[in-house]
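Comment thread on ticket #2218

A.B. wrote:
> Attaching the input chain for the structure job we discussed in standup.
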Amino acid sequence: MDVSKLIEKAREAAERRNYDYAIDLYLQACKLAPDTAVARRELRAVENRQSKEKGTSFVGKVRTGLAHVQVFVLFTFKKYDAAIEKTEDALKADPGNVGLLMLLGRACAEQNYLQSAIVTFEDIRNMNAGGKQKRLVVALRELAYVYEADGKVKEAMDTWTTVSRYAPGDRDSTLKLRDLSAKTMTAQIETSAAKAPGERGALARSTQTEEQKTAAGRMQRETAIDIKTKEDLVSAIEDARKDIQGRPDDPRLYAKLGDFLKQDNNYIDAKKALETACEKDPNNYTWVMRMHDLEIWKMIQGLRALEPKVKAGDATAKAQYQKDRLALLDYRLKSFIEREKKYPTASNIKYELGIVYDELARVKNDKSCFDEAIKRFQTTFQDPKYRVDSGLRMGKGFQAKGQYDLALKRFDDTLKTLELKDDRWKNLMYAKGDTLQMAGKREDAKRAFLEIYEIDVSFRDVSKRVEDLGQATSTEQ
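C.D. wrote:
> Ran it. Output below, let me know if you need it in another format.
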């Protein structure tokens, strides 16, 4: 897909020092064309420029830490595109985070977005992996494999040479250099390289010796990338416990152990680990938030366990589900109000609190909760990351209160910020059409739904909405 216009607009925004808008445009380009190296490289450059000028906030560091766990879950279920999107989102706050860049590069490689994988691993190489040689070697290995998969044999050989320099006697480097040296730049090389992308992951794993797998295993587990089996998870937990033995006063190690235990569905021990982190560092609210997130996770797991019975029509299960869902909302409300007090300028916390208020308003039929939700979304609308979702939710809040003119104004203001008629645009236009119909403006509603219908007849029930409004208009005439 041609995203050159988006990239050009992003460049113009960056030149005006409107970094947030430029980043948002680059992210749109990366989402529409995931293997566009230009957009991803320029995105990182703008993020780094903004980071140097504004610095990285504490909240930003917290977000990147939480992102590792969330991306790990996406990797576990092989949702690589979602992992890429989540990682890019986290990198906005900390573009030099080597762990997140490793996640991004590997996700791109697994999805055969080779150009994006290359520029990402090259970024890690160029920044010397933040001075961490072991991670640099891991990144260089990945880069060499991707170079080879993309047919860049010379670059692959140069990279393996660098690996051998950092890790003298490394057998994998020796074998790969010997293998690549034996080849010549002929059509045969190009043909084999063209087939390599789909086999890149298997190739990388099959060429590792058992000794190398053991040596690299810990590094991979630390970045939560290759934890795909129960055995991997057990090893990661053992590694974390050993680290704690060596540094028993480091709260970060207990938090990391808690994350792994949570992944292992071991709520009790995960809670103990996070409680210890809080004890070791009582003035750091990060660990309290992690505790709250663990409780929220437990409550969500309980709701999911009830879902099959609810779907089967079990009245007792349905009543319990409704009770537990309300308890979850109340707990989240209390938690995020507390977080908002601690970090009053954090958009992500205000956005989540707005969602909680919005859900409570609908569950309890309490319009005062809509006011609280709207108040948060009015603030997060100023943040490019949350602008579209905040505009949509704000408009729906006004709609639920019967304030249709305010709802329509918010939908229109939000629609103006979108360059493309993607799903976000369709959701906003659908909400606009729905509001117009509620306000009795049927012709305007029909036109709104028709705009969606013209580009996507299968979107939700837009075909039926257009048909019903057409019939209603005919009857009135």
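A.B. wrote:
> Thanks. Noting for the ticket: The mean pLDDT is 84.
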